[in-house]
Predict the 3D structure of the following.
Amino acid sequence: MRRPFQGRTIGLRRFEILGAGGVAFLLAAAPIRAQGAQAPQAAAAPQAGGHAAITGFRSWPAPTGTRIVVNFSTMVAHVSPDSGFARTVLVTIPEPVTLAPGVPEVVRVADGLVDSVRVIPGEQEARFMVWFRDSTRFRILDLPSQEDRPFGLVIEAVKPGAALAEVRRLEGIASLKKKDRIRIVAVDAGHGGEDVGARAPRSVGLVEKTVTLAVARALADELNHIPGLKAVLTRGGDYFIPLYDRFHMAEKMKADLFISIHANSTRRRGSGSGTEVFFLSLRGASDQADADMADMENAADLVGGVPPRTGDELVNILYDVKRSSALQQSQLLAETVLDHVATDRRLESRGVKQAGFVVLKSVEFPSILVETAFINNITEARLLKSKAFQLSMARQIADGVREYFKRAGINLGGEGGKPAGGPGGG
């Protein structure tokens, strides 16, 4: 079901789903309310007559499917199915909509799942159609607006069999861990796809999602050179993953550690500097600034992920014991990683802190979130853009991980013996 809407209500309209045989099914749509959305680029200038404009299309192929983002200059209402299974999907915008300069009426995606997107602007209403290569399961989502990212709409096409293939892939990693007696480190590159994260000053030309993926890839390479460790990326490309899916992936692969890579930012340009490492707080953030940052990162997805509590007292006690152990080990991991990252004299060490980041909510393994540097600080943004700095940061984090296992008394199999039991051992 669609999440609760905010904004104005429009009257009953209709939407169409064209099946594989080209037959159009007309269905009555419930009243739709407009809500804000996030788009990967800034809105175009207001159009003549105050009409909304479609400012662009972007497609983001991922292992499990493709997300198409339609960007608007302002908030609009739309009429569409929440989800379905079809060859073609039609979405109606029941108000005047134009095309911004340079935006074509037809965009060919041709990624093996989505064929193309066509826009039909109009003075009374506008429509856009999405053609899939074959009948495909899809859903349509609104994206919340955030500062420089105005209204957008997402059509998410699901690759057939992708969910089962992903489960088998993660189970295969877990089986390899047991067979080879190695430790698994899940490396999470923050943001991705239409969720660009924080931005550097324009003169640098950098967004957070690009930095996090570069550092995450370099970190995975460094960890894979440590005997007894295997690093696995939660995302290996530029695509969106919901927050709760990130640590659920780590749980399914039986990870021993979870490390999420980010780049910090402040609302006051250039006022922040340095590196800090977070682990989960259950009682609020270390201070208001940390709480604000956690809220900003968590806005990438609906807050969730903590396993549901039951009325079984024994289950609750066991869960609390496991969570307490995971938090203690998370603090040790955070302190050890920061000790090594702080050797880079170009960056101030801001310390180990706690905040309620959604991606850190698993109790199955120690989890940390590394804010590498401040991307809205022009000096540190230039560092973050440097391949040499990205590699240096990755090596320092990897050295911290190696040291963590020593401090925790966990012997890595490739470093002189079989791995000992320990937190997150699966």
